[in-house]
Amino acid sequence: MDWIRHFIENGSSHLEAFIASTGYLGVILLMAIESFNIPLPSEIILTFTGYLVEQGTLNFHLAVLAGAVGCVVGSVPSYFLGYYGGRPFLEKHGKWLLLTPHDMEVSEKWVGKYGNFTFFICRMLPVVRTFISLPAGVLKARFWPFVIYTFIGSWIWSYVLVWVGMKFGQNQTIFKQYWHRFDTLIIAVCFILGCLYVYKHVRHFRHASRQNHSPLDK
User: Fold this and answer.
1) DSSP state of 37
2) CA distance 133 to 49
3) CA 112, 128, 40: angle at the middle one, nearest 5?
4) What CA–CA distance (Å, rounded) separates 179 from 124?
5) Which of 51, 153, 160, 211 could disulfide-link to 169, CB 3.0 to 4.6 Å?
6) CA 42 → CA 5, 70, 110, distances in Å?
7) Sequence-separated (6 or more) residues with CB below 8 Å from residue 166
8) Terminal C-alpha separation, the chain
9) What is the DSSP letter of 40?
10) Can you give the three-state secondary structure of 45-113, one letter per residue?
């Protein structure tokens, strides 16, 4: 696990340096990338941002705002990609984003049950928040309610994670002590969960490919 630990530590250092040098624009860019169906974890981006807030490099409220704005910036093109590409686009290219027909069915049920409020809820759920914009476009969700709920949900998400990053900065000695005690276990658990997530989605793709027609055609 040593090479994984070194990889994470080096990546963390580069990410922290990038945000420190680019400021709020860097936060917006990174959050936009995450919201454009690219799994760059906002949990990492925003906690590092909070750490820099505690160090006095960034302002708390502006950092939170940058996180929410970045989410909207990345979500809008993803929404239109789904809106104009539709289900055929998702059927053809969804596998590259680890979006399965099952994910689309779940999205439809959520939207059918909660309406546009779905996008508010999903912006505060790990993993789901990264990919919800594309199904929103496919389902032809109303654009402005989608944008508003995306912003509000992302603002709350950013607020919590930036605050967590600040607390980490204030108590980094304690956190580092526990990290060095359990770092191997934490890395192993994260690795296993990541593999399970990928395996689950690959299994759905294989199952769908054995069927004569796609579930999206219903």
Assistant:
1) T
2) 24
3) 150
4) 25
5) 51
6) 20, 11, 23
7) 50, 51, 53, 54, 60
8) 46
9) -
10) HHHHHHHHHHCCCCCHHHHHHHHHHHHHHHHHHHHHHHHHHHHHHHHHHHHHHCCCHHHHHHHHHHHHH
Q: Which residue has the tokens 């949900």?
A: 153
Residue 80's pLDDT is 94
Mean pLDDT of 56-76: 96
Residues 35 and 70: their CA atoms lie apart, in Å, by 8
Token code pair at residue 127 = 């993993």
Q: Is the dihedral of CA 152, 24, 72, 131 positive or negative?
A: negative
Residue 151: pLDDT over 80: yes
Helices (H) and strands (E) in the chain, counts: 9, 0
Instruction: Say if residue 212's pLDDT is above 60.
Output: no
Whole-angstrom distance, CA of residue 134 vs CA of residue 176: 38
Alpha-carbon span 138 to 131, nearest angstrom: 12
Residue 40 is which amino acid?
Answer: L
Residue 218 CB-density burial (10 A; 0-12 exposed, 13-18 middle, 19+ buried): exposed
Q: CA–CA separation, 107 vs 115, rounded Å? A: 10
pLDDT higher for 193 or 136?
Answer: 136
Residues 150-160 as b or e (16 or more Cβ within 10 Å = b): bbebbbebbbe
Count of other CB atoms within 10 angstroms of residue 211: 9
Q: Which two tokens stand for residue 100?
A: 């399965």
